[in-house]
Amino acid sequence: MIFRDYGQTGKKVSLLGFGGMRFSHVDDHEECVRMMVAAAEGGVNYFDTAPGYFETKSEIVFGKGFAELRRRNLPYYAATKTFKTTESDIRTEIEGQLKRLDIPAIDFYHIWCITSLDNWQDRKKDGILQTFKKLKEEGLIRHICVSSHLIKDEIRELLMEGVFEGVLFGYSAYNFQTRQEAFDAIRARKLGAVVMNPLGGGIIPQHPELFKFLHRPGDPGEGTVAAALRFLWDHPEISVTLEGFQTLAQVQEALNAINGYQPRTAAELEAVKARADASFEGICTGCAYCDECPQDIPIPQFMDAYNQKLLNSKPGVDPIADRLKWHWQLDKSIAGKCVSCGQCESACTQHINIIERLKEIAG
Question: Which residues are CB-contacts of 272 (< 8 A; sequence separation ≥ 6)?
């Protein structure tokens, strides 16, 4: 395992992290704990979850996993998040989180999912920073962090405020073009940096040909998952690459990738980026924050189908209709129910033009 500094906290964290939002069988606690133990035995010491993952079930699983790691004397850091903004709501939430996680304090506590600078200002008005500082003084949290889906100058502006010790943000081989400004702030503020969705929510391994530019010349045995992860590990600013594991096999695959990892030089990394012959910005990663449409349009499924057009366009084939029919059992005409209210676009963490895409799908 490779360990890097988490900003200026003095903590050494594993370059590969364990994300708790994608367990295939979250109710099978024994299976999930086995996954956590296997990761920890392989050197992983950064474990990230959230109260919204499987409606707190992920935090419950992590609590059982942490207990087993303590029994085996395996080190770990716990990271979780809160959407709450007022002191009373945050205190109520963290009390439940500490019980579920079975720990006395949260190592890395995140202000969860900043989607706009206006949203950030609203949370500050509710006193969220003062509350986080109190929680740290009281020893309930150890480091103040933020989770953000902002891009370009907006994420730099957020991080340059100087209140955070670390940041969690989306970064992968398909969206690196619009996330470079984050690294400017990370370097300037010496922040811990954890990246999520390293495999694009599963899109990258599903389309190996599209991402073949990631592979090292002369290494035909390198799989797409390993190539995508190693692309991220070549960034010295990244402290942890957070993979949401579904199965024990995926844990082993990622451990094998890091055990065989040989870093590129900065020049070699730039050459990889230059080999990318298409822009992947705008591909939906399936976070489903848009999934509360007043017209009951299943927007995540429609955006998933639109990905097929972006990634798999073939002459004479309608990839959107194909995906909707055979994968989701949906008809394109449902998209025509859209009234352009904008609720989905306000919730979208990737700033995708959902309304325009729905109109295109509906025809």
Answer: 213, 214, 231, 234, 264
Question: Bridge-partner residues for 114, per DSSP?
Answer: 148
What is the rounded distance in angstroms from the CA atom of residue 38 to the CA atom of residue 245?
12
Q: Which helix (H) or strand (E) holds 14?
A: strand 12-14
**How far is residue 60's CA from residue 231's CA, in Å, rounded to a whole number?**
32
Closest CA to 305 of 280, 288, 326: 326
**DSSP code at position 205:** H
The distance of Cα 251 from the centroid of its chain, to the nearest Å, equals 16
What is the rounded CA–CA span in Å between residue 146 and residue 228?
Answer: 24
Q: Please answer whether residues 258 and 252 qualify as being in contact, where contact means their C-beta atoms are separated by less than 8 angstroms.
A: no
DSSP line for 76-139: -EEEEEE---SHHHHHHHHHHHHHHHT-SSEEEEEEEEE--HHHHHHHHHTTHHHHHHHHHHTT
**CA-based nearest residue to 107, from 48, 56, 65:** 48
Phi-psi region of 158 (alpha: psi -120 to 50; beta: other; left: phi over 0): alpha
Q: Which two tokens stand for residue 41?
A: 């035995």
Structure tokens at 62: 């992590």
**Residue 264, both tokens:** 């590129």
pLDDT in tens, 18-47: 999 999 999 999 999 999 999 999 999 999
Distance CA 212, CA 173 (A): 11
Strand partners, 9: none
Average of pLDDT values for 138-147? 97
Q: Does 312 have pLDDT greater than 70? A: no
